[in-house]
Amino acid sequence: MEKKKYSSYAEIDRDLEILKLEKEINYQKLVLSFQRTKESITPQNIVNGFVSSYTDYVKKSYPQILQSIIPFIINWFMNKKRGS
Fold first, then answer.
1. Residue 83 carries which DSSP code?
2. At a CB cut-off of 8 Å and minimum separation 6, what does 62 contact?
3. What is the pLDDT of residue 20?
4. Is the pLDDT confidence value at 7 over 60?
5. Looking at residue 55, what is its pLDDT?
6. Angstrom distances, CA of residue 49 to CA of 40, 55, 61, 81
7. How high is the pLDDT of residue 41?
8. Which helix (H) or strand (E) holds 1?
9. 74-78: long-range contacts (C-beta < 8 A, 24 or more apart)?
10. Are 32 and 40 contacting, i.e. CB atoms less than 8 angstroms apart?
11. What is the reported pTM?
12. Interacting residues of 58 by C-beta distance below 8 A, sequence separation 6+
């Protein structure tokens, strides 16, 4: 980083004011980010996330589940009709 040469105190004051404002902006961004994170970590959001991921998994696995359960159901009905 190259050193900046100032020709007056007004330039120094202006750069210090800019740095102060940038610092405040970054601080406010950090506070906002923290608040959003805090709001997103609620029991309701955690449960909703768990349920949505579980339903997505079941929806994707539904054909495989049916393929493995249907033979058992057919055998059960056949055995029931035979009286076993």
1. T
2. none
3. 98
4. yes
5. 79
6. 10, 10, 18, 44
7. 84
8. none
9. none
10. no
11. 0.50
12. 65
Q: How many residues does the chain have?
A: 84
Q: Which residue has the tokens 């980010």?
A: 33
Token look-up 């054909």 returns 63
Joined together, the tokens standing for residue 75 give 């055998």
**What tokens appear for 27 in the block?**
């601080």
7: which DSSP letter? S
Confidence bin at 11 (pLDDT 50/70/90): very high
Residue by residue, DSSP assigns 23-61 as HHHHHHHHHHHHHHHHHH-SHHHHHHHHHHHHHHHHHHH
Cα distance between residue 44 and residue 49, in whole Å: 9
Tens of pLDDT, residue by residue over 38-82, are 888 888 878 887 788 777 777 777 778 778 888 888 888 888 776
Q: Token pair of 2, please?
A: 């190259």
